[in-house]
Specification:
Helix 8 (271-286) links the parallel strand 7 (257-261) and strand 8. The chain is of the alpha/beta class. It has 16 helices and eleven strands. The two termini are 14 Å apart. It has helices at 6-14, 20-38, 46-61, 103-111, 153-160, 177-183, 217-227, 271-286, 302-317, 336-347, 350-363, 368-389, 415-419, 426-431, 460-473, 482-485, and strands at 41-43, 72-76, 114-119, 166-170, 186-189, 210-214, 257-261, 290-294, 395-399, 435-442, 448-455. Strands 1-3-2-4-6-5-10-11-9-7-8 form an eleven-stranded mixed β-sheet. It binds glutamine. The site of glutamine has 13 residues, from loops.
Length: 486
């Protein structure tokens, strides 16, 4: 059952070929014996998980099962889950036990899904390699000397190591898609506003969006069906008619126009990533799609704009960690100001402090117009580029990441180099567009390569169709990492 997709597991559970307790226990056993190898989870709580599994089995017995009832799912450790330690990868929240459920967790609970554990992540979701986690970096199941990507690296590694059949992540600048690509799994960042941010610890609120990570597109659709929905507690949550994300999966792709942005196929990409992605595009042509060249002229400004806007919002969001209300507080201090200072100096890691400093600077009087306002204007231009591009194509495709998984430690000394890991993913966040990554092959070292699909607003069902058809004709998503096969 470790090999099974969510759809198969759902059927096995409904037909009582397995119980949720058996399934959950099988995954907990795998976690226990492999956690040290990949460091993909920060917290597991077998008793709580198994109690949920027991309740799911009773619900199935009563004939009240939903598609994901009894399925164990690992959650990125920034989703608040009642009674669960929720650390956000930070010392600041090392001992924080959430008193409430995030909207997404509530929806999974209502579905009868099981919380399998909380996954490792870069501190406050800032990073592209998971090396910024206070709990140590997660390791790539394809080669444990390599990074998983970030910030949802623990979720990607958990799925790639078969420690969980599926996981949740969040994507502010690429944090679902880039680790999905580096770990050879599928991941989707929905249109901004689709998935409620209530109870999702904030990094940069105008960019943050939760989404699913799994082995294939069909599983992503099943997860999205649960995760998407209006929530009045998130002021940016969108009220839209309900839709089934599985409904278009099997549609043929003939006539699909794929836009290839010339800016995304330029320099800076590894030659092996390029040839692997090109082979993926050839597969799409065989499936009846055509490719058209498009332009996204403002895209070379996306990293610069992002690294003004995201830190600005982060500096504001993270001001709440002051040692007064909850979270870490320094043990020794002289007065209130000293308490703030020591708490934040000791509670936050280097990258988080760097972002707070940048954010405070760009928002300060005298610099606001020069940086923040200008970045917002660039953001508008980037969104307009996409609107124009979608007049000529239905989907945009590119590599997800310019390289495959790099060695642990290779980029930690050079943050600007690290920031380039998200060069192809960030623009979709700035524009609020949905994006996904699916495995499309391997480099010579046996490391996975991801193909990015960016769709127009609210086109998730069509994107899942585009990914699913590819996965019906290829088997990259079925390849198992050494840790998964162990
Ligand atoms: N790597 C990017 C950053 O560090 C994106 C992170 C994310 O999407 N959460 O900001």
């Amino acid at each position: 059952m470790i090999e099974s997709s969510l759809k198969e597991l759902s059927r096995n559970l409904a037909e009582k070929e397995i119980s949720s307790v058996e399934l959950t226990r099988a995954y907990l056993d795998r976690i226990a014996s492999r956690i040290a190898t990949v460091n993909a989870l920060i917290t597991v709580d077998p008793d709580t998980s198994l109690a949920q599994a027991q309740a799911a089995d009773e619900r199935i017995a009563r004939g009240e099962a939903q598609p994901l009832t009894g399925i164990p799912i690992a959650h990125k450790d920034l989703w608040c889950a009642k009674g669960w330690r929720t650390t956000c990868g930070s010392r600041m929240l090392e001992n924080f036990v959430s008193p409430y459920d995030a909207h997404v967790i509530e929806r999974f609970n209502n579905e009868g899904a099981v919380i399998l554990g909380k996954t490792n992540m870069d501190e406050f979701a800032m990073g592209s390699s998971n090396e910024n986690s206070y709990f140590g970096c997660a390791r790539n199941p394809w080669n444990t000397d390599r990074v998983t990507g970030g910030s949802s690296g623990g979720s990607a590694a958990a799925v790639a190591a078969a420690l969980a059949p599926a996981a949740t992540g969040t994507d502010t600048g690429g944090s679902i898609r880039q680790p999905a690509a580096l770990c050879g799994v599928s991941g989707l960042k929905p249109t901004y506003g689709r998935v409620s941010r209530y109870g999702m610890i904030a990094f940069a609120s105008s960019l943050d969006q939760g989404g699913p990570m799994a082995r294939n597109a069909e599983d992503l659709a099943l997860l999205l069906d649960v995760m998407v929905g209006f929530d009045a507690r998130d002021s940016t949550s969108l009220e839209r008619p309900a839709e089934a994300f599985t409904r278009l999966l099997d549609e043929p792709l003939s006539g699909l126009r794929i836009g290839l942005p010339k800016e995304y196929f330029g320099e800076g990409m590894s030659t092996e990533v390029r040839s692997t992605v090109e082979a993926g595009l050839a597969e799409y042509r065989k499936l009846g799609a055509t490719t058209v060249d498009i332009e996204l002229p403002a895209s070379d400004l996306s990293i610069a704009a992002y690294y003004v806007i995201a830190p600005a919002e982060a500096s504001s969001n993270l001001s709440r960690y002051d040692g007064v209300r909850y979270g870490f507080r320094a043990e020794e201090y002289d007065d209130l100001l000293d308490m703030y200072c020591k708490t934040r100096s000791q509670g936050f890691g280097t990258e988080v402090k760097r972002r707070i400093l940048i954010g405070t600077y760009v928002l300060s009087h005298g610099y606001y117009d020069a940086y923040y306002l200008k970045a917002q204007r660039i953001r508008r231009l980037i969104a307009q580029d996409f609107t124009k591009a979608f007049e000529h194509c239905d989907m945009i495709m590119s590599p997800t990441s310019p390289t495959t998984a790099f060695e642990i430690g290779a980029k930690t000394a050079d943050p600007a180099q690290m920031y380039l890991s998200d060069i192809y993913t960030i623009a979709a966040n700035l524009a609020g567009l949905p994006g996904m990554s699916i495995p499309c092959g391997f480099d010579a070292a046996g490391l996975p390569v991801g193909l990015q699909i960016i769709g127009n607003y609210f086109c998730e069902a069509k994107m899942l169709n585009v990914a699913h058809r590819y996965q019906q004709h290829t088997d990259w998503h079925l390849k198992r990492s050494p840790v998964a096969s162990s």
